[in-house]
Design the sequence.
């Protein structure tokens, strides 16, 4: 391949394109002007201008989660970089590959008190990112770009974020053509996933078998082959949160997920106190931390690497199975599906839509390929329990941190990644106060996202106590006027029938829509999990004492 002479900025963006990335999220600024100019000239890589650096970084996370590719976000150093660190720790905790690119002033200006000096002698952005996400590189010479590209490939393969600081004078420096050729030859699509031998498993034994699939298996599994395999052998499948939908959660063989608000079927299958306890697990792409949290040491676990499943299912595709053993496991799966998971109390409010009604309407109206971006608080709790994932990457949330406003921004990033699928952002009014302005970005790019804001006018997750009521209550906001100020269509509903009609119309719209509805307080009034295995939230225990 022949290259024209190019700058570091141009070469970096070309390498990002080779990794399959199509969008970069950013807030422009002087320190990244060469990168922005190079981006403007490119046809295969597009810029998405957000209204805040943190929101842009959340968009990059949403893009990465929906696409399976690396998310990329750019900003100036110092204040811009500082704003993005909240998304950095989210990407690290949730194991999402995001490249954070920040600029800086020229190196010979460092340490003289100049405007937005982000060097080690200034705000020391690299040290901040290294402490918060684990890896940061300062590019001090064009020849160091090759090692940066290698780090990008590794962080993507390992689902880790990476920060790169490139001073403005390095961005405009020319890169050697031989060096550019080397990067192309050595660093494209290196895979770090390991495969191993296929285990010889006898599925004719009357074993209650579970395959535990984690997010590291995403992209390595052929869905139809897996579905045929588990149906033939009547094997239960449990996933972690990010792997939800690898097989449709409406299938009998799916036992749901473990993690935040774990599925009752999964918990019952893993409970040592249950007669339905599984007696063997094949864990693929699952972290050790999840196994330690949910799997009793007495249960036999065979760990397989993500690249193994395809060969494993192929090896057993023609393996004859005894009807009696299949019927045994079929009856076991049916028994798990009949376990009563919760105490549901349908509540009908005069001027509100209950959580159960809200998600019943969403499930009735929206197609199976809809992608849901959940935010924080009660709506995230309700969504994670009441929504069913029918396809991979269809429920996007921050698995471990749940920052407020994440669901708004992640939906924008996800829609760029999957323009042909419906995308819904489900948030509370507290989160709307933080990043609701990013709906302006959806309007700017004409993204037909449905934003549903459940308004209870409070930080409702705070314990109910008269002493702190003033801290939890929020003033009324006219969200119709707020959305209309962006030129965005918005509706308001206080009952199920009105909400359903508004959602039907929004589903057909080619522009973003805000659906504002009043919801009650805590989800617990309608929906209580009864299993004894689920993690007891410290906040639940605190409420009982206050």
Sequence:
């Amino acid at each position: 391949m022949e290259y024209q002479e190019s700058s570091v900025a141009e070469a970096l963006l070309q390498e990002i394109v080779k990794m399959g990335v199509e969008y970069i999220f950013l807030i422009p600024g002087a320190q990244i002007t060469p990168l922005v100019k190079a981006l403007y000239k490119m046809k295969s890589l597009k810029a998405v201008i957000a209204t805040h650096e943190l929101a842009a970084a959340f968009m990059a996370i949403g893009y990465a989660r929906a696409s399976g590719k690396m998310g990329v976000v750019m900003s100036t150093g110092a204040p811009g970089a500082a704003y993005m660190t909240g998304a950095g720790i989210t990407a690290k905790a949730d194991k999402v590959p995001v490249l954070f690119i920040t600029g800086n002033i020229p190196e010979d200006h460092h340490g003289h008190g100049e405007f937005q000096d982000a060097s080690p002698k200034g705000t020391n952005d690299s040290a901040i990112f290294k402490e918060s996400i684990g890896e940061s590189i300062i590019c001090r010479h064009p020849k160091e770009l090759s090692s940066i590209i290698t780090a990008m490939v590794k962080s993507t393969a390992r689902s880790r974020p990476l920060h790169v600081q490139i001073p403005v004078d390095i961005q405009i420096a020319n890169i050697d053509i031989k060096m550019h050729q080397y990067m192309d030859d050595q660093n494209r699509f290196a895979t770090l996933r390991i495969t191993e031998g296929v285990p010889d498993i006898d599925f004719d034994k009357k074993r209650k078998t579970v395959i535990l699939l984690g997010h590291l298996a995403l992209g390595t599994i052929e869905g139809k082959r897996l579905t045929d395999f588990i149906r033939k052998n009547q094997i239960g499948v449990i996933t972690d949160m990010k792997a939800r939908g690898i097989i449709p959660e409406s299938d009998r063989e799916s036992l749901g997920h473990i993690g935040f608000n774990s599925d009752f079927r999964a918990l019952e299958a893993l409970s040592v106190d249950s007669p339905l306890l599984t007696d063997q697990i094949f864990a693929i792409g699952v972290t050790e931390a999840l196994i330690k949290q949910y799997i009793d040491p007495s249960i036999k676990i065979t760990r397989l690497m993500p690249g193994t499943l395809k060969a494993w299912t192929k090896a057993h595709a023609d393996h004859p199975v005894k009807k009696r053993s299949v019927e045994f496991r079929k009856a076991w799966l049916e028994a798990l599906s009949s376990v009563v998971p919760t105490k549901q109390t349908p509540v009908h409010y005069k001027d509100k839509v209950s959580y159960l009604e809200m998600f019943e309407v969403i499930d009735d109206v929206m197609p199976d390929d809809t992608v849901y971006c959940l935010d924080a608080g009660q709506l995230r709790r309700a969504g994670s329990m009441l929504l069913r994932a029918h396809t991979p990457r269809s429920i996007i949330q921050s698995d471990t941190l749940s920052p407020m406003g994440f669901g708004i921004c992640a939906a924008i990033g996800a829609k760029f990644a999957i323009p042909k699928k419906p995308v819904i952002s489900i948030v509370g009014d507290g989160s709307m106060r933080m990043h609701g302005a990013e709906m302006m970005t959806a309007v700017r790019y004409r993204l037909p996202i449905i934003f549903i804001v459940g308004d209870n006018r409070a930080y409702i997750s705070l314990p109910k106590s008269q002493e702190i009521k003033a801290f939890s209550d929020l003033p009324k906001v006219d969200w119709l006027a707020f959305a209309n100020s962006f030129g965005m269509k918005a509706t308001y509903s206080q009952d199920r029938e009105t909400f359903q009609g508004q959602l039907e119309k929004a589903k057909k719209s080619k522009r973003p829509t805000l659906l504002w509805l009043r919801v009650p307080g805590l989800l617990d009034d309608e929906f209580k999990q009864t299993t004894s295995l689920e993690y007891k939230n410290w906040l639940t225990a605190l409420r009982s004492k206050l």
